[in-house]
Design a protein that fits this description.
By secondary structure, the protein is of the alpha+beta class. It is built from six helices and four strands, in the order ααβββαβααα.
Length: 148
């Protein structure tokens, strides 16, 4: 069960979705297409925090960190946030802004590789869009000719 999300966090997340940074926009253009069948959310509220990107199936938060994350109290804040997320079964990967600006495609591929590795370690099946489609009758052992 996921933690409650304060209304103020939800409102802030909605505002941030409209005002993505350039690196966020570049990465979102790729992740929004559900590459490999994996769905991502942008500016996703998680308890009191807002995650840049989130893959719920893999319990993975993706944060794009600029230079501000190295200044003042931000490193301590990021550490508290990561601890809180881990306590709620969400791991965080931090990606430098420069990496996204240099190649959003390469960053997206590394994220997808990590998602796949995590899902394999969790023993989760591939996303439903990649599994073979079966009708309920095939699953139940019914054959079409028996239904006539």
């Amino acid at each position: 069960m996921r933690p409650d999300k304060p209304a103020s966090t939800i409102r802030r997340a909605k505002r941030l979705r409209r005002d993505l940074t350039l690196p966020g926009t570049l990465l979102w253009q790729i992740l929004r297409t559900a590459p490999g069948g994996h769905r991502f959310r942008k500016q996703h509220p998680a308890g009191p925090y807002i995650l840049d990107f989130f893959c719920a199936r893999a319990d993975l938060a993706i944060e794009i960190d600029g230079i501000a994350h190295d200044m003042g109290g931000n490193p301590a804040h990021d550490e508290r946030r990561d601890i809180w997320l881990r306590a709620n079964r969400i791991d965080t990967i931090r990606i430098p802004v420069r990496a996204v600006l240099d190649s959003a495609e390469r960053v997206a591929q590394s994220i997808l590789d990590m998602v796949e590795d995590r899902l394999n370690s969790f023993g989760k099946a591939p996303p439903s869009s990649l599994r073979d489609a079966t009708s309920p009758s095939q699953v139940d052992g019914e054959d079409q000719k028996d239904r006539i």
